[in-house]
Amino acid sequence: MDYFPVFVNLKDQPCLVIGAGEIAARKIELLAKAHAKITVIANKISPQVLGLVASCQLDVIQKTFAPDDLRGYRLVVSATDNRETNKLVAQTATEQNILVNVVDSPELCSFIFPAIIDRSPIIAAVSSGGAAPVLARLLRAKIETIIPPAYGRLAQLAEKFRSAVKQHIKEPAQRRIFWENCFQGTVAELVFSGNEQAAEQQIQDELNDTRQVNQGEVYLIGAGPGAADLLTFRALRLMQQADVVVYDHLVSPEILELARRDSEKIYVGKQRHKHTLPQESINTLLADLAKAGKRVVRLKGGDPFIFGRGGEEIETLMQQGINFQVVPGITAASGCAAYAGIPLTHRDHAQSCTFVTGHLKDNSINLNWLQLAAPNQTIVIYMGSAGLEKICHSLIAHGSPEDLPIALIQQGTTSQQRVITGTLASLPPLVAEQDIKPPTLIIIGTVVNLHKQLNWFQVGQG
Predict the structure, then answer these.
(1) Which of 24, 46, 286 is closest to 38 using CA atoms?
(2) Which of 33, 87, 118, 270 is catalytic?
(3) pLDDT at 214
(4) Higher pLDDT, 25 or 149
(5) How many CB atoms lie within 10 A of CB 193?
(6) Distance between CA atoms of 421 and 453, rounded to whole angstroms?
(7) Given this model, what pLDDT does residue 277 score?
(8) Are 304 and 325 spatial neighbours (Cβ–Cβ below 8 Å)?
(9) Which candidate, 88, 91, 154, places its Cα nearest to that of 121?
(10) Sequence-distant (≥ 6) Cβ neighbours of residue 245 within 8 angstroms
(11) Which DSSP helix (H) or strand (E) runs through 239?
(12) Which CATH number fits domain 333-461: 3.30.565.10, 3.30.950.10, 3.40.190.10, 3.30.420.40?
């Protein structure tokens, strides 16, 4: 990032604005909202600035700027239309380690004014680093629409009860859960509806309830096939409130980045012939973390109930009486096929679709080949790249034509997506020459012929 975002406390701090035109007036108003002590230096004072003298308690000095004018100030804004004056202000402020902003000249700034969403005491800021200020303002407008003004009142209410909650709930993790429940539940709804007195009573009632439940919860979340923006709203919400995220190699870094920043990340990746943790240990880990009072996200590629072994994990949780939620995800078959332009069903090609896994629990490939070789269907094979040659040979041996179309999709829905197409006879040697990176998906059937015609997501194509 070009600029590190910070919030500076300017209350009663001396700040200087050089220039007194319309733009300077806007900067003065912003600084005044932060309760800064503002001095204005300019040769000519505009009516806009004169109108702010009383309301913003300005000290106005009508003179030409000189380097000595900067002494003793915490922050300076240069809003003149004189390039040389602006450069002199920036140079002098830099030499004296004073924060400086030169309007419309980011190369002269040590800080910049972001587009601000003010829900005091909640403040949000959007910046493009000076690259596209109009875009930053448009983004601010979008954010304004989803953050009601009542969020400021909700924050004030939290401040009022902060000490009492800290005194009643000693454990920080449990305290965080208490506040998240307030901000996402009845307390927040009461504030949003204008009934703040009832909201205060609700908080007090919950504090007086001595039944503190320390057991956590597990959220079994399908992360989808790879693209971060294919997550569901519920998945994102739970990821951002979890204390621990347990994930595997099918979860992209972009998706993991969306989890709460201070959450603990535990990698339990399982790949063919290479298990960081066996499944039984993962089941136990989830249960133990929840019993320790943690809210745990089990993040799994695709959908947790389609070859994701989610059923095995919740069996353990149910046996131990642990609360859990299951959040479905877009399974790889649906996501990768859509991004490759291969419809899984099509009335001219396939009237059914079968999902199978490319290896069983003992890593063998033992499928119902006669059923899979039947015509007018689409076969989707998960985790089948290592056994591609055997899969193609077995289908041909059980009646599938050698020229039956087949596609291998690598890292589908992401910017690294590759689609390699061929036939049952030609694809195995073609793939053997490629550097294939997991995860992969195999689609077999005449629907693959539609790939070139319907492919809209042009990335890496084989």
Answers:
(1) 24
(2) 270
(3) 59
(4) 25
(5) 11
(6) 13
(7) 83
(8) no
(9) 154
(10) 239, 256, 259, 263, 264, 265, 266, 296, 297, 299
(11) helix 233-239
(12) 3.30.950.10
Chain centre distance of CA 136: 19
Among 339, 381, 348, 332, residue whose Cα is nearest residue 449 = 348
Q: Using one digit for the tens of pLDDT, what is the confidence trace for 128-181? A: 988 898 999 999 999 888 888 899 999 999 999 999 999 989 888 888 888 988
Give the length of the chain. Answer: 462
What count of other Cβ atoms lies within 10 Å of the Cβ of residue 20?
Answer: 27
Q: Is 59 a catalytic residue?
A: no
pLDDT tens for 221-256 read 999 999 999 999 889 988 988 999 999 988 989 999
Task: Give the predicted TM-score (pTM) of the model.
Answer: 0.66
Catalytic residue, candidates 27, 37, 243, 248: 248
Kindly report the average pLDDT of the chain as a whole number: 92
Q: What is the CATH number of domain 217-330?
A: 3.40.1010.10
248 labelled catalytic: yes
**Which candidate, 425, 250, 416, 433, places its Cα nearest to that of 330?**
250
In this prediction, residues 195-220 reach a mean pLDDT of 83
